[in-house]
Design a protein that fits this description.
Radius of gyration of chain A: 26 Å
Number of strands of chain A: 14
Largest sheet of chain A: 4 strands, mixed
Largest sheet of chain B: 2 strands, antiparallel
Structural class of chain A: alpha/beta
Distance between the termini of chain A: 67 Å
CATH superfamily of the largest domain in chain B: MetI-like
CATH class of the largest domain in chain A: Alpha Beta
CATH class of the largest domain in chain B: Mainly Alpha
Number of helices of chain B: 14
Distance between the termini of chain B: 48 Å
Oligomer: heterodimer
CATH superfamily of the largest domain in chain A: Periplasmic binding protein-like II
Shape of chain A: globular
Strand order of the largest sheet of chain B: 1-2
Helix content of chain A: 40-55%
Number of strands of chain B: 2
Helix content of chain B: over 70%
């Protein structure tokens, strides 16, 4: 009988010990984020090398998330990428690069965050959006590149404006991957059908509204302007605030932030949104439909105008001659501003020093002048719509313009004269602005000023006060 | 005769005892381990995280004590999420809790084809709930959805469904009305079948109509099962996430942001993991309190 009792206690202790051991193992894996360094991948790299690696360089494998996402506009460049990746391999035989895909459908940020939190983040990541950089830097995802950058021969090819979002407290955390300028794309065929001149798109808010009204034809199922109302709504809304002469936030000289949701400009812009939906009735019925559905509406000829680039439509077979690009209509301020943004390359701060070195070499290769020149040559041959701006000053995309209608080129050149970065702290304040926008677009009785005030008060208490306190420390 | 049976049994016992005592432990161990790994470890980690300004890439970050709790408890965002959660719980209760009970009661009246109906009721719950939700999301499309199409033929609508701030909560609860509770029906039905038939016959003979039979005989005997289901139901309703995330992600204009979605957004959009953990702990406490209250009420009701 005694034996039985002792055995039972021993079994229970064994069970508990196993539990603790398994949980301890689980915990360790989470904390040592650089454990991918372990030999299995190293020896795999060794065994696949055809020749012997150069004696001085040990083989190293890095993971880069730069394989084109299924359905993205850059899928057309896959043959080009593969050629370049082979070039890199022959230049650095000891570096093996594993290319992985970024998630589609706007899930890329989630995928990246989950990977970084689990210690499985890529060694090099090319898709750090400008507004999200400050969040990533604050959370220690991006390695400090200041020293490498200062020794970089081509660093003067990048303007301060392009590097602004990658810098914090004088340190650099990213290398520009791509930049874009936002303008509006319109359907020339629908313009002609509506009796509008496709060669002279609207230039002011009043002209824009008039054009949208002419383009809206319920019988044919077309509407004038596709509005962005889903949870990225603030991304396009800010442009109208700028055109009205203001912004949503202000960065003070001491680094703190001031909210200007209830400024005259923001209220005027939200009133315009309200009128477009309820007074003029020129937008889609489902204002909160997904980004892809918005694109589909435009590409299937249901929407006359949409903010964005024509490259998606062209990739999906729309004739480039049926499309036009226009600068955003000027608002009460008399001007229109065009958002510039893009993405940075970053190196994982938790990767081993060898992997960080290899990642830097890869990034330098993929952002060199020769790389971009080769890429533009490839795009010109393939007939795809090229990126019309490049982060480097010494790369001129105008060499591929012969394929592109002159009026599109002219529109982008004009847009580039009035550039504007996204509003300060956008990544943290998005949901408040979007809530105000959606309230107005979905409820006819909602008043723009009231909604903006409500969200400003919330954001002030929940985001700005703690943020300013952090900054002042 | 009996003596030899007894001696046989006595002789057989020691052989069983040799590999007897650790068998139950061996069978329980896998579920204990997975419970510990997937339920308890995350729970304790959650408590731990809620006291730090948790840095997800280089845990745990700075220790901040109860600061995370203070940060969100007074905020309007949290209060709104809490309000939405309770509205959802009430909507689910009003629209979906009683459906399996009624279906089971009706099943009890059916003699022929009973097993066919039971089978038919199971089929919707075989489909993963997320798939059902996705299909309904497409049906709700104001321009091309099936619902507006058929309602239009009847001369009704078009309705905005998920686009309408006031209608969207109702639209999210609606699929659960028809789609999910196959197991519950079986549970209630088995409780009804557990009631002795002669009692029902006696009631019929005494002249009790169907409504009287249901309220006086059937439902009181099902009380225990109903209560068990109710506890699980409330917990699930308070923590509702899947249909809202798939259909509206908390929009439009935060009208469907429940506490679980608020927790998700705080962590994955605002990167405030410590605060998110703190909200989770508070939600855990609220749900625990409600469950405890239900258990106490049931105990006192049973006497």
């Amino acid at each position: 009988m005694n034996n039985k009792g002792v055995m039972k206690t021993a079994a229970a202790t064994l069970a508990v010990a196993m539990l603790l051991a398994s949980t301890a193992c689980g915990g360790e894996k989470n904390d040592t984020a650089s454990s991918p360094d372990a030999s299995p991948s190293g020896s795999a790299a060794q065994s696949t090398q055809s020749g012997s690696p150069s004696a001085s360089e040990a083989p190293v494998e890095i993971v880069v998330w730069d394989y084109p996402t299924d359905g993205s506009a850059i899928e057309v460049e896959i043959p080009f990428f593969e050629r370049k990746w082979k070039e890199f391999e022959s230049k650095y035989p000891n570096i093996k690069v594993k290319h992985e895909q970024i998630a589609a459908g706007g899930k890329d940020r989630e995928q990246y965050l989950t990977a970084m939190a689990g210690g499985n983040g890529p060694d090099a990541y090319p898709a750090n959006p400008f507004p999200d950089m400050e969040k990533y830097i604050a959370n220690g995802f991006n390695a400090d590149l200041t020293e490498r950058w200062n020794q970089y021969a081509d660093k003067d090819q990048y303007s301060d404006a392009v590097m602004a979002a990658a810098a914090k407290d004088g340190k650099i955390y990213g290398v520009p991957h791509d930049i874009y300028i936002m303008a509006m794309t319109y359907n020339k065929k629908l313009f002609k059908d509506a009796g509008l001149d496709p060669a002279s798109p609207p230039k002011t808010w009043d002209e824009f509204v008039a054009a949208a009204q002419k383009l809206t034809n319920p019988a044919k199922g077309t509407y004038g302007f596709n509005i962005l109302g889903m949870d990225w709504a603030d991304w396009h809304f800010e442009y109208w605030v700028w055109a009205a002469g203001g912004d949503l936030t202000q960065k003070n000289p001491d680094g703190t932030a001031t909210l200007t949701f209830t400024s005259d400009a923001a209220v005027k812009a939200l009133q315009l949104y309200k009128d477009l939906k309820w007074k003029y009735k020129v937008v889609q019925k489902n204002v909160v439909q997904s980004y892809d559905e918005n694109d589909k509406d435009f590409q299937t000829g249901h929407a006359g105008m949409i903010i964005g680039s024509p490259d998606g439509a062209i990739k999906n077979g729309v004739d480039i001659n049926d499309l036009g690009v226009m600068t955003l209509p000027a608002g009460p301020s008399g001007k229109a501003y065009h958002q510039t943004g893009g993405a940075y390359w970053s190196i994982n701060a938790h990767s081993s020093p060898e992997k960080q070195d290899a990642a830097w070499k890869y990034i330098m290769f993929m952002t060199s002048k020769s790389y971009y020149d080769d890429e533009l040559a490839f795009i010109k041959e393939s007939g795809a719509f090229p990126p019309l701006v490049n982060p480097r000053k010494d790369v001129d995309p105008s060499t591929v313009f012969e394929n592109i209608p002159a009026d599109m080129v002219a529109a982008y050149k004009q847009a580039s004269e009035n550039l504007h970065l996204e509003y300060f702290l956008k990544a943290r304040l998005s949901k408040y602005v979007v809530t105000a926008i959606q309230s107005v677009l979905l409820d006819e009785k909602a008043d723009p000023l009231t909604e903006l005030q409500k969200q400003q008060d919330l954001a002030q208490k929940e985001v700005i006060d703690p943020y300013n306190a952090e900054v002042k420390k | 005769m009996q003596a030899s049976v007894v001696t046989e049994a006595v002789r057989a016992k020691p052989a069983r005892r040799l590999h007897g005592w650790w068998m139950p432990i061996a069978f329980l161990l896998p579920s204990l381990v997975s419970f510990a790994l997937f339920k308890y470890y995350p729970l304790f980690k959650l408590f731990y995280m809620s006291f730090f300004a948790y840095q997800v890439a280089s845990p745990p970050g700075d220790f901040v004590g109860f600061h995370n709790y203070a940060e969100f408890l007074g905020t309007d965002s949290f209060m709104l999420a809490l309000r939405n959660t309770f509205v959802f719980a009430l909507l689910f209760l009003a629209m979906t809790f009683w459906v399996p009970i009624v279906q089971a009661l009706l099943l009890g009246e059916i003699g022929r084809g009973n097993s066919t109906f039971r089978f038919l009721y199971q089929i919707p719950s075989i489909v993963p709930y997320v798939v059902t939700v996705l299909i309904w999301k497409w049906m709700y499309n104001p321009d091309f959805g099936l619902l507006n199409y058929y309602l239009g033929k009847l001369g009704l609508g078009p309705y905005l469904w998920l686009n309408n701030i006031h209608m969207t909560k109702f639209a999210i609860v609606l699929p659960s009305l028809v789609a999910t509770q196959g197991i519950s029906i079986l549970l209630y039905y088995s409780a009804i079948r557990g009631i002795p038939q002669d009692m029902l016959e006696a009631a019929k003979v005494d002249g009790a109509g169907p409504w009287k039979r249901i309220t006086a005989l059937l439902v009181p005997n099902m009380r225990f099962i109903i209560f068990i289901q109710f506890v699980g139901f409330m917990t699930g309703a308070l923590l509702i996430f899947d249909p809202i995330y798939v259909m509206t992600q908390g929009g439009p204009a935060e009208s469907t942001t429940t506490v679980s979605l608020h927790i998700y957004n705080t962590a994955f959009y605002q990167y405030r993991f410590g605060v998110s953990a703190a909200i989770s702990v508070v939600m855990f406490a609220i749900t625990g309190l409600i469950t405890y209250a239900q258990l106490r009420l049931s105990k006192s009701a049973d006497g």
